[in-house]
Specification:
Bound molecules: NADPH dihydro-nicotinamide-adenine-dinucleotide phosphate, the ligand O=C(O)C1=N[C@H](C(=O)O)C[C@H](O)C1
Mean pLDDT: 87
Radius of gyration: 22 Å
Largest sheet: 5 strands, parallel
GO molecular function: 4-hydroxy-tetrahydrodipicolinate reductase; NADPH binding
Low-confidence stretches: 1-49
CATH architecture of the largest domain: 3-Layer(aba) Sandwich
Keywords: Amino-acid biosynthesis, Diaminopimelate biosynthesis, Lysine biosynthesis, NAD, NADP, Oxidoreductase
Order of helices and strands: EEEEEEEHEEEHEHEHEHEHEHHEEHEH
Pathway: Amino-acid biosynthesis; L-lysine biosynthesis via DAP pathway; (S)-tetrahydrodipicolinate from L-aspartate: step 4/4
Oligomer: single chain
CATH topology of the largest domain: Rossmann fold
EC number: 1.17.1.8
Structural class: alpha/beta
Shape: globular
Number of domains: 3
Helix content: 25-40%
CATH class of the largest domain: Alpha Beta
Organism: Porphyridium purpureum
Length: about 350
């Protein structure tokens, strides 16, 4: 029985891990009981079940999912650092974490442990559709969180829409307009798409947007420089910087996102951007936006510097809970949101 793992909502047992004719009883975090037994399939029971359990085969395992209409969260991109951080935040908030995560094609491991307490089975892109459809069938109120790779953001968004799974898209570098159109066109779909989930940075983005809307052209003739430093593994130009640049353009600055300077060299991050050494590779986002008047006599500088990722993870879970309330509210006048909408709704906690 050493390989048998329990979640409150699912039996997740390699065939062969339980002896023929034997069974085991495991108590989950919320007190729900899981009964695992060897037979033609693995059987499980839970206090929250509603209806006949669904059986699925994943990577040589037979898994039985208890049906339930409670909110649960599937975090895709594990074992990537951002997805892992969100999975931790889901557990901290005591929300049910789906023990499956879509993962990248080159990921060698088959499972990941979240804080040593919850195991997540990693699902390669070729099995993603089948697994997601089955999870949706058993757990209609699942919400997916996507922290994957710029190159997979739109394909994953299309898959969520195809399966009717509401989602929070944190992955940057995709075509956000295409995602919004797809969600808007599909009945019952809700999504939050945003390049930054940190409450205070979202407030800064909102302030710049409001300034640009109320005072278009106020910085006409000024010059702008934008420099952003991130860990060397970051694939794209910061999506946050691109969003802020859109407001600067409305304020009259002649600037293209191609002019955003990216710092990905650890030495530069430390010496030039003053990133703490322990955050250089483990995760950081240091942004400086500098505006100068035509004669050089007036300067503005805006800066937001984040070490680590926890602030985004907390905001992401706020977005999940916001989406869950939206879809449950019965009013569907808006179905696609950004984090400014989430902030305005009062749903952001810290
Ligand atoms: N909105 C926000 O607040 C924030 C957004 N981000 C964004 O989140 C994204 C992820 O960041 P980070 O964790 O640092 O990135 P990493 O590139 O370090 O990790 C991404 C993970 O996703 C995996 N992956 C690749 N393709 C797929 C796929 N098709 N399906 C599922 N998983 C896949 C990768 O696997 P493999 O190694 O095989 O490629 C990797 O394990 C980035 O776009 C980043 O900009 C980050 C922080 C905050
Ligand atoms: O990749 C990251 O790390 C981050 N990505 C987001 C972005 O592209 O703006 C948000 C933050 O900068 C961290």
């Amino acid at each position: 029985m050493s390989q048998a793992r329990s979640a409150d909502w699912m039996a997740f047992v390699p065939l062969g891990a339980v002896g023929e004719g034997s069974s085991a009883r495991i108590r989950g975090r919320s007190g729900a009981t899981l009964v695992v037994s060897r037979g033609p399939c693995v059987r499980a029971s839970s206090r929250r079940r509603c209806g006949v359990p669904l059986r699925m085969q994943v990577d040589g395992m037979e898994v039985q999912i208890e049906r339930s209409d409670e909110l649960c969260v599937m975090v895709n991109g594990v074992p990537g650092p951002m997805a892992t951080e969100v999975a931790r935040a889901v557990l901290r908030r005591k929300l049910p974490l789906v023990p499956f995560a879509l993962t990248g094609p080159s990921v060698a491991q088959h499972e990941a442990s979240i804080d040593g307490s919850s195991e997540v089975k990693l699902v390669k892109p070729d099995a993603a559709r089948s697994v997601l459809k089955q999870i949706k069938a058993a757990r209609p109120n699942v919400v997916c969180v996507d922290y994957t790779h710029p190159s997979s953001a739109n394909a994953n968004a299309s898959l969520y829409a195809e399966c009717g799974v509401c989602y929070v898209m944190g992955t940057t570098g995709g075509d956000a307009d295409a995602m919004r159109r797809e969600v808007a066109d599909k009945a019952g779909m809700f999504a939050v798409v945003a390049p930054n989930m940190a409450k205070q940075i979202v407030a800064f983005q909102a302030a710049m947007k409001i300034m640009a809307e109320q005072f278009p052209g106020a910085f006409e003739g000024y010059t702008l420089t934008v420099v952003e430093s991130h860990q060397s593994t970051k694939a794209d130009t910061s999506g946050t910087a691109k969003a802020v640049v859109a407001s600067f353009k409305q304020l009259g600055l002649d600037f293209d996102v191609d002019q955003i300077e990216k710092v990905r060299d650890p030495e530069q991050s430390i010496s030039r951007m003053r990133v703490p050494a322990d955050a250089v590779s483990s995760g950081h986002a240091f942004h400086t936006y500098h505006l100068s008047s035509p004669d050089g006599s007036v300067h503005f500088e805006f800066q937001h510097n984040v070490a680590g990722r926890r602030v985004y993870a907390e905001g992401t879970v706020d977005a999940v809970q916001f989406l869950d309330r939206q879809r449950g509210s019965g009013s569907a006048s808006q179905t696609v949101f950004d984090m400014i909408d989430v902030l305005r709704s009062g749903s952001m906690k810290s």
